[in-house]
Amino acid sequence: MLGHSHATSGALAWSAAAAALPLTLLTYPDMHVGDIAAVDLVMGTFLTAGAALLPDADHPKGTISHVLGPISHYACRFISRISGGHRQGTHSLLFVALVTYGTWAGEHWIGRNFTLALVFFLLALAVRALNLAPTGDSVKAWGTVVILAASGTFAIDHWISDKPAWLPFSVGLGALAHLIGDCLTERGCPLLWPLKTRTRFPIIDRTGNKMETLVLVPIFALATVALLWYTITHQP
């Protein structure tokens, strides 16, 4: 699947989870009770959209590779090398668990600086994947991403807590949504990596085809807006 497909599927997954699941599951292991605030719901939508690009950190030519210019490109090359290449280690349930726990640990051990740095990176991924900046790997392209992500982080800084209990769930859910999407293609994913067995349900025969770009992405986007509206308007 393409970057914007992963991003919109991540946003949809978050809005669906927020509408269907109790807050205690969205904030595990902190186990908060009650309803998620509307501002957290909206922030989570954009951040989960960005997190849905994380498994492609093993792809030196993918969307995530160009998000921060040479820094992200060489980071992706390194991750690709240590994970075994594209759609290997980072496309597994182990990776989902690692990014989820890593987010929780970073929040609790480092604090607000980690939270804001992660917010910036996830927003940068969302901006790039949703085509809100010029394409390509030029300074103009990734420089625009940096400016938009920094502006978004500055705005979110006024609303987000030091340790948002829902953020680990958001990151893990975005990564999981990516895996599910890639399992719908012929190549599938090694969900139980380091075992090499791949899980696949080939519904999408070719990445970037009209079904994906003209049907699935608009449906994901409209469904996300509808679920957000429902959840916000039905909170007590």
Please describe the structure with a list of short key phrases separated by commas or semicolons.
single chain, 236 residues, mainly alpha, 9 helices, 0% strand
Helix proportion of residues, in percent? 55-70%
Q: What share of residues are in beta strands?
A: under 5%
Oligomeric state, counting identical vs distinct chains: single chain
Number of beta-strand segments = 0
The H-and-E topology, N to C, reads as HHHHHHHHH
Average pLDDT taken over every residue? 91
Low-pLDDT stretches: none
Number of domains: 1
Q: Based on helices, strands and strand pairing, what is the structural class?
A: mainly alpha
Distance between the termini: 38 Å
Number of helices: 9
- Inertia-based shape: globular
Major beta sheet summary: none
Rg, Cα atoms, Å = 17 Å
Plain-language structure description:
The structure is a single chain. With 236 residues, this protein is mostly helical. The protein has one domain (3-52, 92-233). The chain is built from 9 helices and no strands. It has helices spanning 3-20, 23-26, 38-51, 70-83, 93-109, 112-129, 139-156, 167-183, 210-233. Helix 1 runs antiparallel to helix 3 (38-51), helix 3 packs across helix 6 (112-129) and helix 6 (112-129) crosses helix 7 (139-156). 47% of the residues are buried. The model has no long low-confidence stretch (mean pLDDT 91).
